[in-house]
Input
Amino acid sequence: MTKSFGEGDTRIPVLKGVDLDVALGEVLLLVGPSGSGKTTLLSVIAGILESDEGEVKILGESILELSGSEKTRFRRDHLGFIFQQYHLLPTLTAVENAAVPLLIRGVPKQEAFAQAEAILGSMGMGGRLAALPSRLSGGEQQRVAIARALVGDPQLLLCDEPTANLDGETGHRIVQQLHDIGKQPDRGVIIVTHDTRIFEFGDRIVHMEDGRVDQIQQGQEEPV
Ligand SMILES: Nc1ncnc2c1ncn2[C@@H]1O[C@H](COP(=O)(O)OP(=O)(O)O)[C@@H](O)[C@H]1O
Ligand SMILES: [Mg+2]
Output
């Protein structure tokens, strides 16, 4: 696929022909310098941005051919997205933020909060459930954003720098959690990261460079 930003003479190509498959049961890491197009690629996969050319197929569905409301429904039912900027709702507590995807699906409040609480608890956030985002540290906000992505049990999980604000130990534990999700036979996980400490969790490591896939490395290998 290709993707540019801007118009006419100032048009800047950002994705210059990316062709990528993610298998079910796979954890794919997407790495590369800042500005190489990683976030743009995730956003196109999620149907948040449209590509100029090319298609995105997830679970047999061509995302770019769906109408706006079909896309929203597809995202709601099948995708989890951890944004680089967390996009937490400032007036909702941690547990309420994490429960949003379930509430949107019509899950009763008590049940939605119970599930959100369980996931936050598994991330060491059990003591911060009632805190508003403004009262949380960066790492805590990041964990709420991750809990929100996981709570709906998505088949494809898209994660943009999920460990950027976490200490080594917490980051390791959370990526282990993301990895365990991706290894289920009907799931897939894509993680954008700079964090070389988590490379061991990838089945494949896709190196992006200037809008292209530069190299694909099998997990556990030393970088070439
Ligand atoms: N909405 C936008 N409008 C214009 N340029 C953008 C926009 N989003 C990203 N870009 C540009 O596209 C390039 C790739 O950005 P991005 O996908 O965020 O890279 P990465 O996530 O790898 O750091 C950068 O040069 C960035 O400035
Ligand atoms: Mg980015």
Q: What stands out?
A: The two ends are 26 Å apart (CA to CA). The chain has a mean pLDDT of 92.
